[in-house]
């Protein structure tokens, strides 16, 4: 940020200079977040919250964390906003090139592998947790998770981001194999709402995307329309 | 700071006639009085020292009042310890039980000395995984059986995800009549995960 005179906290000054500059000028932009993706027969449902924070300030309360990589492949981003945007841009370029060479739509696994290669190679510099999901002709709807560190694995349902720890129990108990598209949408919306209630870094609206052979359908669930759980 | 003995899953919920307190095998549930239990999380050394001091002070208080102690008295004594020594302690407690004035109550006394009465609460290292489940499942006005099932399910889910929580579920049900304990061994736990 602009030139700032900043003393390390071990140095005591007559005035507290660090307090003159608000918290958000000194913090990196983070998508501390909750992201989720579920496979169903015929496609995938992806969901994310919409909060981007710089320290205690919410830099963007209506962020779109569901980023298109190709026509039927999206990724959900969590971690450092800068890192994930840069990686997504690079992978979009690489995948587009690859798709032209092949002269057909790329596989979701290819996209996930590209993410994994980048996240693993630069693991020391990056802070990115990504869920790649989409539909292709060979294997239908698929969800791959590429968490911090650069591993890649396919899962029928995957959650990520800082808010995800609060919903592991809910997701474990409520996921059933062979759910329909509507059930997946409801399940994702409920899980994200519960995480947003508990995690300070997640909030705003719930953004959903359904990817199938027919294409991509996007939805937004606004704050007052979120599912309600009885609060005590 | 003191190395916290990394904790376990603890889950406590109140229903019309009593309180259900669940914990996994590694968590500590301390018997405070005939109708009160205290669950500890965090640095166990700190937690045990505080709990012993509280039980000591509570028994004197109860003798002076000439009646069984109230849950909120126990929680208040615990809170004053945690607040006075907040810089040295790193422990978190759930004080739950039944008394003749206010019926079943659940209090959580946290780091720094905050006291909160709640309908249900979760604690320990495995608790972060079940906040979502607990928020969705626990409603006011549940019956005893619903409380028992939900508590067991919540603990099972936490033990499935948390590598330092495990194996069996201890339940204590405290009502006007006293405390009843149950133990559910690992092979009898509900199977909730359908992810292969």
TrEMBL record, chain A:
GO molecular function: threonine-type endopeptidase activity
Catalyzed chemical reaction(s): Cleavage of peptide bonds with very broad specificity
Active-site residues annotated for this sequence: 33 (nucleophile)
Pfam family for this entry, one: Proteasome
Localization per Swiss-Prot or TrEMBL: Cytoplasm; Nucleus
Chief subcellular location: cytoplasm
GO annotations of cellular component type: cytoplasm; nucleus; proteasome core complex
SUPFAM superfamilies: N-terminal nucleophile aminohydrolases (Ntn hydrolases)
InterPro entries referenced in this protein's UniProt entry, alphabetically: Ntn_hydrolases_N, Pept_T1A_subB, Proteasome_bsu_CS, Proteasome_sua/b, Proteasome_suB-type
CDD domains: proteasome_beta_type_6
GO biological process: one example: immune system process
Annotated keywords: Cytoplasm, Hydrolase, Immunity, Nucleus, Protease, Proteasome, Threonine protease, Zymogen
Subunit architecture: Component of the proteasome complex. The 26S proteasome consists of a 20S proteasome core and two 19S regulatory subunits. The 20S proteasome core is composed of 28 subunits that are arranged in four stacked rings, resulting in a barrel-shaped structure. The two end rings are each formed by seven alpha subunits, and the two central rings are each formed by seven beta subunits. The catalytic chamber with the active sites is on the inside of the barrel. Component of the immunoproteasome, where it displaces the equivalent housekeeping subunit PSMB6.
Function description: Component of the proteasome, a multicatalytic proteinase complex which is characterized by its ability to cleave peptides with Arg, Phe, Tyr, Leu, and Glu adjacent to the leaving group at neutral or slightly basic pH. The proteasome has an ATP-dependent proteolytic activity.
Family (UniProt): Belongs to the peptidase T1B family.
Protein name: Proteasome subunit beta
Organism name: Cyprinus carpio
Lineage per the UniProt record: Eukaryota, Metazoa, Chordata, Craniata, Vertebrata
Protein encoded by which gene: LOC109048456
From TrEMBL, chain B:
Physiological role: The proteasome is a multicatalytic proteinase complex which is characterized by its ability to cleave peptides with Arg, Phe, Tyr, Leu, and Glu adjacent to the leaving group at neutral or slightly basic pH. The proteasome has an ATP-dependent proteolytic activity. This subunit is involved in antigen processing to generate class I binding peptides.
Localisation per UniProt entry: Nucleus
Keyword Hydrolase found: yes
Enzyme class: hydrolase
Transmembrane segments: none
UniProt GO molecular function: threonine-type endopeptidase activity
Top-level taxon of the source organism: Eukaryota
InterPro entries: Ntn_hydrolases_N (IPR029055), Pept_T1A_subB (IPR000243), Proteasome_sua/b (IPR001353), Proteasome_suB-type (IPR023333)
Protein's name in the database: proteasome endopeptidase complex
Annotated catalysed reactions: Cleavage of peptide bonds with very broad specificity
Single Gene Ontology BP annotation: proteolysis involved in protein catabolic process
Organism: Cyprinus carpio
GO cellular component: cytoplasm; nucleus; proteasome core complex, beta-subunit complex
Keywords annotated in UniProt: Cytoplasm, Hydrolase, Protease, Proteasome, Threonine protease
UniProt-listed Enzyme Commission number(s): 3.4.25.1
Chief location bin: nucleus
């Amino acid at each position: 940020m602009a030139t700032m005179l900043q003393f390390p906290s071990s140095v005591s000054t007559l005035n507290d200079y660090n307090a003159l500059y608000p918290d958000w000028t000194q913090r990196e932009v983070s998508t501390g977040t909750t992201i989720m993706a579920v496979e169903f027969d015929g496609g995938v449902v992806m969901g994310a919250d919409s909060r981007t924070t710089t320290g205690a300030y919410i830099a963007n309360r209506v962020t779109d964390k569901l980023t298109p990589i190709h026509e039927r492949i999206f990724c959900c981003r969590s971690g450092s906003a800068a890192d994930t945007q840069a990686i997504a841009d690079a992978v979009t370029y690489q995948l587009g090139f690859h798709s032209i060479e092949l002269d057909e739509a790329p596989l979701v696994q290819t996209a996930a592998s590209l993410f994994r290669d980048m996240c693993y190679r630069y693991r020391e510099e990056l802070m990115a947790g990504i869920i790649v999901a989409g539909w292709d002709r060979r294997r239908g709807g698929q969800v791959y998770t590429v968490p911090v560190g650069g591993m890649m694995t396919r899962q029928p349902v995957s959650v990520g981001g800082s808010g995800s720890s609060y919903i592991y129990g809910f997701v474990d108990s409520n996921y059933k194999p062979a759910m329909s598209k509507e059930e997946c949408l409801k399940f994702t919306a409920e899980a994200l709402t519960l995480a947003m209630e508990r995690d300070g870094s997640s909030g705003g609206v719930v953004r959903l995307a359904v990817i199938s052979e027919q294409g991509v359908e996007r939805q937004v669930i606004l704050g007052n329309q979120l599912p309600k759980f009885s609060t005590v | 700071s003191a190395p916290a003995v990394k904790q376990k899953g603890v889950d406590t919920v109140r229903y019309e006639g009593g309180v259900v307190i669940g914990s996994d095998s590694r968590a500590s549930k301390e018997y405070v009085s005939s109708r009160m239990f205290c669950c500890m999380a965090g640095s166990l050394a700190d937690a045990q020292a505080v709990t012993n001091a509280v039980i000591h002070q509570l028994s004197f208080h109860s003798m002076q009042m000439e009646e069984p102690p109230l849950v909120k008295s126990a929680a208040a004594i615990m809170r004053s310890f945690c607040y006075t020594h907040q810089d040295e302690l790193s422990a978190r407690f759930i004080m739950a039980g039944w008394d003749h004035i206010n019926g079943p109550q659940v209090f959580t006394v946290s780091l720094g000395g905050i006291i909160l009465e709640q309908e249900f609460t979760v604690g320990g290292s495995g608790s972060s995984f079940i906040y979502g489940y607990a928020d969705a499942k626990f409603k006011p006005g549940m019956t005893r059986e619903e409380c028992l099932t939900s508590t067991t399910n919540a603990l099972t889910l936490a033990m499935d995800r948390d590598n330092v929580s495990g194996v069996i579920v201890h339940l204590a049900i405290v009502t006007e009549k006293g405390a009843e304990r149950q133990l559910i061994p690992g092979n009898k736990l509900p199977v909730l995960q359908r992810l292969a």
